[in-house]
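F.,

This is the one I mentioned.
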């Protein structure tokens, strides 16, 4: 699975500021945003690391050609399609990554890593609902897949503006693997939710 396959770079981000912005943009007349039903966003609502905002990394053309040649020789090798998807993902060519991951999953439908990479690629192409559906598919294969749970929380927070549901997913990650990179990222996210909520409460007083 791609180490970069997180809906945005969690490490080093100030979740309090980001989530505070998210709360501030919600309807002021709505009740507690942790309990309310959020409106569906048509794009990643607060993804400050959106790949379209900068020059994407170059595609490793030589590696792509090598994998395409390997696929021609062995078209039923799911791993080759997954690796090709990873190359497109690295270059932020998400439609091509989606195609490759889908082909990989047709050959090996029980790979939660590839399934989650596909879900993240969906999110980066503004297909939030499909991303969440794909994450659910991953979790059916492995309910304790921490990278999936982390991503699901991020997409719920920033794609659906549902901080309560996001926090529940992040709590699962911390409980399952508190010392892992995913666990540490989830803990920072939860701290950001708490800080943003506290600031919002102070502002409303």
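My design for it:
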């Amino acid at each position: 699975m791609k180490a970069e396959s997180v809906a945005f770079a969690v490490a080093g981000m100030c979740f309090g500021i980001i989530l505070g912005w998210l709360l501030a943009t919600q309807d002021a007349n709505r009740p507690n945003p942790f309990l309310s039903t959020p409106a569906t966003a048509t794009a990643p609502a607060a993804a400050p690391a959106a790949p379209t905002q900068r020059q994407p990394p170059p595609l490793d053309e030589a590696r792509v050609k090598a994998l395409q040649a390997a696929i021609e020789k062995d078209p039923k090798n799911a791993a080759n399609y997954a690796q090709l998807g990873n190359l497109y993902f690295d270059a932020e060519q998400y439609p091509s990554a989606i195609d490759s991951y889908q082909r990989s999953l047709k050959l090996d439908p029980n790979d939660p890593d590839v399934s989650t990479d596909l879900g993240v690629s969906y999110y980066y192409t503004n297909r939030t609902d499909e991303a969440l559906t794909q994450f659910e598919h991953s979790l059916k294969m492995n309910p304790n897949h921490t990278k999936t749970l982390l991503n699901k929380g991020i997409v719920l927070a920033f794609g659906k503006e549902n901080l309560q549901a996001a926090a529940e997913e992040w709590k699962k990650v911390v409980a399952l693997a508190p010392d892992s990179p995913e666990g540490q990222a989830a803990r920072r996210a939860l701290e950001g939710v708490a800080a943003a909520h506290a600031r919002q409460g102070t502002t409303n007083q």
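The CA atoms of residues 132 and 152 lie 6 Å apart.

Talk soon.
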